[in-house]
Specification:
With 320 residues, the chain is mostly beta strands. It contains one helix and 28 strands.
């Protein structure tokens, strides 16, 4: 009984009981569900890579489709990953064997490259460079204006997740070789690696480049300082979770994360303590009712958050 009362008290204090969390807004974007999603840094646009094989770019203020995108004709393939530039001008999409660069305002194609075995992508703030992960045990820092590779970052197994700091200093890569590795973008130099003792599910960098997140599948999630040898700042205080998406607040005090198993969490960066956790809406009240949180974005003041799930449902939340 004491344990139950303690749990109730904790949920009350932290706002962590999922049934008490109500979304401010809910929208259905993809009736058939999505493979991928990307929310623009300013929270105004959303890309959904839909199971039907094409992608749509949504205006999140009007909730109207601006345009649709597709690399190849037909239902085969589909966008498996995408990212907007912080400048708001460029969108990059990946299918498994190609990468495309688009002008955000018009949806005009400005670059296309055949490229096999792609897994993940991040885009530089100015939209010129893409960090591209692949099954070929490497990530490539690619100049999309010149159409050439600038750096190749090697791993021993396939690269599963990539990130770039908004300030342009660092690249972060994670792979099935259990390592998350930080790289200097001015020289291409390897700075440090961390072994999380299992395959890496997600890596992320704060905008100011000061913090790096690394999570292993059904395992630990650590936040490191990027400077020096990458000292451990905190360990998120829940074990055996798989993260699919993450966003640091602009001041790097908070981290929002989306799990493979439907939950959204808010963490304190300095301590790793969980501030909130809740489960978003799913489309049908049937089993299994899980939904992967494909992407999420905190607003400038970390007062609200937008999430998009694999069920094609987007929601806006107030942060306690």
């Amino acid at each position: 009984m004491r344990n139950l009362l303690n749990l109730i008290l904790i949920c009350t204090l932290l706002g962590a009981c999922s049934e008490q969390k109500q979304a401010l807004d809910t929208w259905v974007h993809a009736d058939t569900g999505s493979y991928s999603a990307a929310i623009s840094p300013d929270g105004k646009l959303l890309l959904t890579g839909e199971i039907s094989g094409f992608a749509r770019v949504w205006d999140l203020q009007t909730h109207q489709v601006k345009y649709s995108l597709q690399h190849e004709e037909g239902d085969a393939g589909g966008v498996v990953a995408a990212a907007f530039s912080a400048s708001g001008d460029v969108l990059v999409t990946l299918e498994q064997n190609s990468i495309a660069r688009w002008t955000v305002k018009s949806g005009r194609l400005t670059g296309y490259w055949s490229w096999p075995n792609l897994t993940a992508v991040a885009v530089s703030a100015d939209g010129r460079y893409a960090l591209i992960g692949s099954n070929d045990n490497q990530a490539v820092y690619f100049d999309m204006v010149q159409g050439e590779m600038r750096y190749v970052f090697s791993h021993h197994e396939k690269v599963t997740s990539v990130a770039l700091s908004k300030d342009g200093r660092f690249a972060l890569t994670g792979a099935d070789d259990w390592h998350a590795s930080l790289w200097d973008l001015s020289t291409g130099e390897h700075l440090w690696s961390k072994n999380l003792k299992y395959k890496i599910a997600l890596v992320a960098l704060s905008d100011d480049g000061e913090f790096a997140l690394a999570n292993a599948y059904i395992g630990d999630a650590h936040i490191y300082a990027t400077r020096g040898k990458g000292s451990l700042v905190s360990r998120l205080d829940e074990i055996k979770m798989t993260l699919v998406s993450a966003d640091f607040s602009d001041d790097s005090r908070l981290l929002a994360s989306g799990r493979a198993a439907k939950a959204i969490d808010i963490w304190e960066v300095s301590s790793g303590k969980q501030r909130e956790t809740w489960e978003p809406k799913v489309k049908y009240k049937v089993r299994p009712d899980s939904a992967t949180i494909l992407d999420l974005k905190l607003d400038t003041n970390a007062k609200t958050l937008i999430s998009e799930s694999s069920t094609g449902i987007g929601q806006r939340w107030a942060i306690n």
